[in-house]
Write a structure and sequence with these properties.
The chain is α+β, with helices and mostly antiparallel strands and about 180 residues long. It has 3 helices and 5 strands; from the N terminus they run H-E-H-E-E-E-E-H. About 10% of the residues are buried.
């Protein structure tokens, strides 16, 4: 009898451990820590019926994470209201709270590359893909510096054309003001 209890207890403990471990999805790819020269982002896609779509969705998710880490525009709306209906013990307090957040990402990802993956697993006809995408910041910084230089040149041209217009208008006003 005692052996049956021990065996039953051992089986229950094993089934509990196996059941709890089955719900945990382990990461297949590792994401290195980002530093001042490189950014990394992990993308995951689950629930798609085709392997290539799952891999592409994971890559898109990873690139979206990279773009979000570079520049994100957020808009939020928060509403809060409360009212009391009735007086004393019969009073009823109604409260309402709602919040909406919109995140917009608009970033060109010219220099992003696949660092690791895609690792795709299939379970019951449904695919799960993971991928790590990296972005080397030195070409991005160079492109930003070139963009700033180009904007500066454009501004200088604009200022020069304005100076010429001012000079022409001054010459015109002097020539019309002087008798010939």
């Amino acid at each position: 009898m005692r052996i049956k209890r021990q065996l039953l207890t051992t089986c229950l403990v094993l089934m509990t451990l196996i059941g709890c471990a089955a719900g945990v999805v382990k990461q297949k790819v590792t994401t290195p820590a980002s530093d001042q020269y490189t950014l990394y982002a992990r993308g995951v896609s689950e629930g798609l019926m085709r392997e290539n779509l799952s891999e592409r969705a994971a890559q898109a998710n990873a690139r979206n994470e990279l773009a979000t880490s570079i520049q994100t525009h957020l808009k939020s709306l928060t509403k809060s209201a409360s009212e009391q209906i009735g007086i004393g013990k019969d009073a009823e307090l109604n409260t309402m709270f709602s919040e909406a957040i919109k995140q917009t990402v608009n970033q060109v990802m010219n220099f992003s590359t696949i660092h690791e993956g895609p690792v795709t697993t299939e379970k019951k006809g449904v695919y799960r893909s993971e991928v790590v995408v990296k972005l080397d910041l030195s070409p991005v910084n160079q492109e930003m510096m070139e963009n700033l230089k180009q904007r500066k040149r454009l501004y200088e041209r604009f200022r020069t054309s304005n100076l010429f217009k001012e000079l022409e208008s001054e010459i015109d006003s002097e020539s019309t003001g002087q008798p010939e």
